[in-house]
């Protein structure tokens, strides 16, 4: 009986090892560590988070919380205005850094510093520079005009602008670097031919540079938008979400709700962002996994 | 010797007109941090561009731990080192194994795992912070270095796997085939053929993971809270808890904290720029 049983089983599913080549067995073994990390620290937290966000009451509470609406608007401003300004500057500077000059080479080495140093001390440095009484910026304004400078971080609009500025300061070098690589990949013959034909600076950009860089530029812009959604430091360390919680973005809002012990709201606010995030992610995955 | 033409001078002037603002914009926050580090408190708060009495006194306070906020400076520095090194090593191990498995061994389901990893890469890490915090609580790892190490490995590996997979796809298949013909086992191919050829990408990814972990603030302050367990960035954030924060000491500590990653970045810049920008955006 026992023999028949084991025989039946082996027909239904032959032992795993006999169906796989040794290479495939190794493949599974080597893939296992990441897979386990993925299960324990991505799948479990995501499912747990969704489970916490299951109550419709949380969404009603979010809808009634003016700070959530404000954070959503701030996030949108951050992404739509901030990122586009940043990418336009990066596009412009990539042209500047593509120039062959020794001093520009050296400048590009310095230019990468904001990206190379950790953001915490530099953001705090900016925070003190903007201090209304002792900060360098207002000292400078006073010595120029004799007037007191504005209280930078006390006005929500100015404070959010400053946070966007800090974000641009930090990540501009990275995107400029990527766009430089794109620019250097364009064949030099095209520019020489255009030079012979007497093309203007704008015509060279319009008909040579832009057509060959637009895919890269759009990809970078979308990627930067997705990452900026998770930019916690620029806002949290500069303004702390203040004044009066008016400069929160979605990434700092979750921490605010966590502090207030409203865990389900924290998760619900992130779930609310998903309809905007997932299409972007889907689009990027399509682009990158070709 | 040929004098530059008017046109050349004009071009150079235009370039300088861009270059100088770029230089100032880049350097101001960093210079401000340095200025505070070498200034006595009175000079720092007076808004001068160079202190009247530049001093290294702030550094001596930090290195001798002579302030309430700095009493665990060495332990916290060491915590940052241990966590960054562990994240670098673990990420390299996990990502190299996975990339080899997916790209060279063509393991069944490898493509699915790759896409799942890529998907994780695009979800902003800050969105995962709150559930990760609760998850670590459920696993009983809060206030334990392992919580931060594992969280950072989770965040670093998807990109690491992706970059390494791109790089290993470029290695010719004939190499593996030749090694198999010579009777090499899979592990021998991994160790003797694959790893040496992948060195530049491995350096880039190792650096990436170490810097990511060293610079992390959000996860570090969520997952670690005990003064003897926290990393330097969390300690820097804690300075702000006081109303009259010693900003000159905060900036000095921040300056010391910023030096190692900057040094690592510039040391491995060659690898970073090639390995990471090629991977970051494939057009």
UniProtKB/TrEMBL annotation, chain A:
<feature type="transmembrane region" description="Helical">
    <location>
        <begin position="106"/>
        <end position="130"/>
    </location>
</feature>
<keyword id="KW-0472">Membrane</keyword>
<keyword id="KW-1003">Cell membrane</keyword>
<keyword id="KW-0813">Transport</keyword>
<feature type="transmembrane region" description="Helical">
    <location>
        <begin position="25"/>
        <end position="51"/>
    </location>
</feature>
<feature type="transmembrane region" description="Helical">
    <location>
        <begin position="263"/>
        <end position="285"/>
    </location>
</feature>
<protein>
    <submittedName>
        <fullName>ABC transporter permease</fullName>
    </submittedName>
</protein>
<dbReference type="Pfam" id="PF00528">
    <property type="entry name" value="BPD_transp_1"/>
</dbReference>
<dbReference type="InterPro" id="IPR000515">
    <property type="entry name" value="MetI-like"/>
</dbReference>
<keyword id="KW-1133">Transmembrane helix</keyword>
<feature type="transmembrane region" description="Helical">
    <location>
        <begin position="158"/>
        <end position="186"/>
    </location>
</feature>
<feature type="transmembrane region" description="Helical">
    <location>
        <begin position="71"/>
        <end position="94"/>
    </location>
</feature>
<dbReference type="InterPro" id="IPR051393">
    <property type="entry name" value="ABC_transporter_permease"/>
</dbReference>
<feature type="domain" description="ABC transmembrane type-1">
    <location>
        <begin position="72"/>
        <end position="282"/>
    </location>
</feature>
<comment type="similarity">
    <text>Belongs to the binding-protein-dependent transport system permease family.</text>
</comment>
<dbReference type="InterPro" id="IPR035906">
    <property type="entry name" value="MetI-like_sf"/>
</dbReference>
<feature type="transmembrane region" description="Helical">
    <location>
        <begin position="207"/>
        <end position="229"/>
    </location>
</feature>
<keyword id="KW-0812">Transmembrane</keyword>
UniProtKB/TrEMBL annotation, chain B:
<dbReference type="InterPro" id="IPR050901">
    <property type="entry name" value="BP-dep_ABC_trans_perm"/>
</dbReference>
<dbReference type="Pfam" id="PF00528">
    <property type="entry name" value="BPD_transp_1"/>
</dbReference>
<keyword id="KW-1003">Cell membrane</keyword>
<feature type="transmembrane region" description="Helical">
    <location>
        <begin position="249"/>
        <end position="268"/>
    </location>
</feature>
<feature type="transmembrane region" description="Helical">
    <location>
        <begin position="77"/>
        <end position="100"/>
    </location>
</feature>
<keyword id="KW-0472">Membrane</keyword>
<feature type="transmembrane region" description="Helical">
    <location>
        <begin position="192"/>
        <end position="214"/>
    </location>
</feature>
<feature type="transmembrane region" description="Helical">
    <location>
        <begin position="15"/>
        <end position="38"/>
    </location>
</feature>
<protein>
    <submittedName>
        <fullName>ABC transporter permease</fullName>
    </submittedName>
</protein>
<comment type="similarity">
    <text>Belongs to the binding-protein-dependent transport system permease family.</text>
</comment>
<keyword id="KW-0813">Transport</keyword>
<keyword id="KW-1133">Transmembrane helix</keyword>
<feature type="transmembrane region" description="Helical">
    <location>
        <begin position="112"/>
        <end position="133"/>
    </location>
</feature>
<feature type="domain" description="ABC transmembrane type-1">
    <location>
        <begin position="77"/>
        <end position="268"/>
    </location>
</feature>
<keyword id="KW-0812">Transmembrane</keyword>
<dbReference type="InterPro" id="IPR000515">
    <property type="entry name" value="MetI-like"/>
</dbReference>
<dbReference type="InterPro" id="IPR035906">
    <property type="entry name" value="MetI-like_sf"/>
</dbReference>
<feature type="transmembrane region" description="Helical">
    <location>
        <begin position="145"/>
        <end position="164"/>
    </location>
</feature>
């Amino acid at each position: 009986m026992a023999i028949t049983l084991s025989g039946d089983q082996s027909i239904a599913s032959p032992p795993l090892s006999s169906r796989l080549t040794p290479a495939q067995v190794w493949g599974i073994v080597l893939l296992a560590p990441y897979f386990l990390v993925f299960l324990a620290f991505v799948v479990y937290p995501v499912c747990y988070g969704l489970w916490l966000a299951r109550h419709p009451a949380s969404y009603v509470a979010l809808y009634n919380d003016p700070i959530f609406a404000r954070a959503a608007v701030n996030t949108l401003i951050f992404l739509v205005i901030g990122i586009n300004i940043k990418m336009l500057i990066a596009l412009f500077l990539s042209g500047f850094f593509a120039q062959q000059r020794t001093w520009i080479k050296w400048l590009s080495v310095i230019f990468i510093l904001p990206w190379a140093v950790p953001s915490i001390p530099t953001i705090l440095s900016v925070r003190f520079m903007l201090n209304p009484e002792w900060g360098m910026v207002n000292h400078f304004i006073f010595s120029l005009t004799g007037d007191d400078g504005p209280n930078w971080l006390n006005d929500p609009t100015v404070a959010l602008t400053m946070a966007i500025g800090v974000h641009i300061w930090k990540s501009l070098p990275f995107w400029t670097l990527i766009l430089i690589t794109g620019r250097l990949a364009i064949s030099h013959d095209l520019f020489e031919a255009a030079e012979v034909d007497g093309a203007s600076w704008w015509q060279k950009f319009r008909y040579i540079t832009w057509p060959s860089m637009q895919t890269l530029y759009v990809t970078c812009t979308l990627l930067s938008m997705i990452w900026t959604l998770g930019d916690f430091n620029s806002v949290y360390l500069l303004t702390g979400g203040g004044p009066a919680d008016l400069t929160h973005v979605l990434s700092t809002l979750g921490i605010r709700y966590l502090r207030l012990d409203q865990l389900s709201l924290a998760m619900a606010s992130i779930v609310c962002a998903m309809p905007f995030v997932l299409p972007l992610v889907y689009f990027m995955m399509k682009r990158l996994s070709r | 010797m040929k004098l530059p033409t008017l046109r050349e001078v004009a071009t150079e002037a235009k370039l300088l007109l861009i270059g100088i603002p770029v230089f100032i914009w880049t350097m101001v926050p960093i210079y401000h941090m340095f200025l505070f580090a070498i200034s006595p408190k009175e000079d720092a708060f007076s808004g001068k561009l160079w202190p009247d009495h530049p001093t290294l006194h702030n550094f001596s306070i930090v290195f001798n731990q002579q302030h309430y906020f700095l009493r665990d400076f060495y332990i916290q520095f060491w915590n940052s080192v241990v966590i960054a090194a562990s994240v670098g090593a673990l990420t390299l191990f996990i990502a190299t194994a996975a990339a080899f498995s997916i790209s060279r061994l063509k393991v069944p389901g490898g493509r699915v795992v790759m896409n799942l990893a890529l998907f994780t890469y695009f979800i902003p890490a800050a969105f995962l912070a709150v559930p990760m915090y609760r998850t670590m609580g459920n696993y009983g790892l809060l206030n334990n270095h392992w919580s931060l190490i594992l969280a950072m490995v989770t965040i670093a590996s998807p990109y690491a796997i992706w970059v390494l997979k791109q790089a290993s796809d470029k290695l010719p298949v004939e190499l593996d085939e030749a090694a198999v013909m010579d009777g090499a086992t899979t592990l021998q191919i991994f160790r003797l053929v694959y790893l040496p050829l992948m060195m530049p990408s491995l350096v880039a990814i190792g650096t990436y993971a170490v810097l990511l972990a060293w610079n992390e603030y959000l996860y570090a302050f969520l997952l670690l809270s005990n003064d003897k367990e926290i990393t330097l960035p969390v300690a820097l954030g804690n300075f702000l808890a006081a109303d009259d924060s010693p900003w000159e000491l905060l900036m000095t500590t921040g300056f010391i904290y910023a030096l190692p990653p900057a040094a690592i970045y510039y040391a491995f810049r060659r690898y970073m720029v090639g390995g990471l920008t090629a991977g970051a955006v494939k057009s």
